[in-house]
Specification:
9 strands; alpha/beta; 10 helices; 15% strand; 7-stranded parallel β-sheet; Rossmann fold
């Protein structure tokens, strides 16, 4: 297959690219700066216009949209919030426009989204749960809606509402693990809030599974099957790293330091990968301890 990845230079895109290339697929990466990667072709774009690259859409079988600035940077100023939105919305609209204008359209489109779609509180969520009204939830809603027009063009659109991906290169995971590594491990705030996660290999495996499954379409939660609290996550991490686990980090202190971004750590709604499990995906790392031992 010919596979086009927008946002392919990040750690998720890099992991996907390696997996596809190892199986003999041809990968094209939309990028602002050309990079020499074996068996990967860079296609230059500015992320703002169709100029110079849109005609290449005729060659593609699969398009994967991973663009978007990481939310793991603070403080969340008004300008930064707008950049979070623009970095997702504009590329999504461009990709949808390029597909609509192409003579030979790709058959599959994968749209990256987030588990924060369901909000920061409430009962156990699955793919049928409506979106919340907070900033991160509406960011996910608007990102998904940017490519909604593809549903009427005969393109199988898959929406991956991903939990934070556990990988050594992931900023949020490094931020969470740092206190434990420095022998100051403990729960963040009450520790009762959800700490969603998925191992990088399961994230790649799930994306590829859904692409290969001809019946897969619509939204899927890419999250480990067991509900994990923040306290459970940090305690398990401390055990794996052979570090102490003792006092909680005061909520007020973390909110003062991180500002609004602290909701990613101090708040969280428990969710489940209902549709992914029903479709038959087999997790490589369903257990948090197994996942952390593999990474550490």
């Amino acid at each position: 297959m010919n596979i086009l990845i927008a946002g392919g230079s990040g750690f998720l895109g890099t992991a996907l690219t390696k997996s596809f290339v190892s199986d003999g697929h041809k990968v094209f990466v939309l990028t602002r700066r050309a990079k020499k990667i074996k068996n990967v072709e860079s296609i230059l774009w500015d992320g703002k216009t169709l100029n110079g690259w849109a005609h290449r859409m005729n060659e593609m079988d699969v398009v994967i949209h991973l663009t978007g600035k990481s939310l793991s940077t603070f403080p969340w100023t008004r300008a930064k919030k707008q950049s979070f939105l623009d970095s997702r919305l504009t590329p999504g609209l461009l990709l949808a426009s390029a597909i609509e204008a192409s003579g030979k359209r790709p058959s599959i489109f994968v749209q990256a989204s987030g588990i924060n779609y369901y909000g920061l509180s409430g009962s156990l969520a699955d793919e049928s749960t409506p979106p919340a009204d907070d900033f991160s939830a509406q960011l996910a809603v608007q990102s998904e809606d940017a490519t909604k027009a593809l549903d009427d063009l005969g393109v199988r659109r898959i929406i991956t509402r991903s939990a934070p991906v556990l990988d050594k290169k992931a900023i949020l995971f490094a931020l969470i693990a740092l206190p434990v590594k420095l022998f100051f491990g403990g729960p963040f705030g009450s520790g009762k809030q959800a700490m969603p996660w998925i191992h990088i290999r399961d994230w790649v495996g799930a994306v590829r599974f859904l692409i290969a499954n001809e019946n897969a379409h619509g939204a899927y939660n890419l999250i480990a099957p067991a509900q994990t609290s923040n306290a459970e996550f940090n305690k398990t991490l401390a055990e794996v790293l052979h570090r102490p686990y003792w006092f909680p980090y005061p909520e007020f202190l973390m909110r003062n330091i991180l500002g609004e971004m602290s909701v990613l750590i101090l708040d969280g709604r428990f969710s489940q990968p209902k549709r992914l499990l029903e479709s038959g995906y087999q997790y490589q790392f369903p257990s948090l301890k197994e996942a952390l031992e593999d990474l550490m």
